[in-house]
Amino acid sequence: MPYVHIRVTDEGVTAEHKRQLIEGTTRLLEQVLNKPPASTFVVIEEVATDNWGVGGETVTALRARERNQ
């Protein structure tokens, strides 16, 4: 019973993106590990950019700097 937890920042991830991630992840586990889709669980968690840090600063701060460049 595979369980896959995907974390992404909450920056415009649509329902269609999520559907594709769930479908593709399930298909990959079936193809590579022969896991049945009916027992494969995929969870997508969206994290606020204030709660995601890279290189010692939040993604919110990184995105703001990118916009100002």
From TrEMBL:
Q: Which SUPFAM superfamilies match?
A: Tautomerase/MIF
Q: Does the keyword Electron transport apply?
A: no
Which InterPro entries does this entry report, sorted A to Z?
Answer: 4-OT, 4-OT-like_dom, Tautomerase/MIF_sf
Instruction: Name the domain of life.
Output: Bacteria
Q: Name one Pfam family in it.
A: Tautomerase
EC number(s) on file: 5.3.2.6
Single GO molecular function: isomerase activity
Concerning Gene3D superfamilies, the annotation shows: Macrophage Migration Inhibitory Factor (3.30.429.10)
Write out the catalytic residues in the record.
Answer: 2 (proton acceptor)
- Alphabetical UniProt keywords: Aromatic hydrocarbons catabolism, Isomerase
Instruction: Report which reactions are catalysed by this protein.
Output: (2Z,4E)-2-hydroxyhexa-2,4-dienedioate = (3E)-2-oxohex-3-enedioate
Residue limits of the 4-oxalocrotonate tautomerase-like domain? 2-61
Family the entry assigns: Belongs to the 4-oxalocrotonate tautomerase family.
UniProt-listed PANTHER family:
2-HYDROXYMUCONATE TAUTOMERASE (PTHR35530:SF1), TAUTOMERASE-RELATED (PTHR35530)
Q: What does this protein do?
A: Catalyzes the ketonization of 2-hydroxymuconate stereoselectively to yield 2-oxo-3-hexenedioate.
- Subunit composition? Homohexamer.
Its protein name is: 2-hydroxymuconate tautomerase
The upper taxonomy is: Bacteria, Pseudomonadati, Pseudomonadota, Gammaproteobacteria, Pseudomonadales
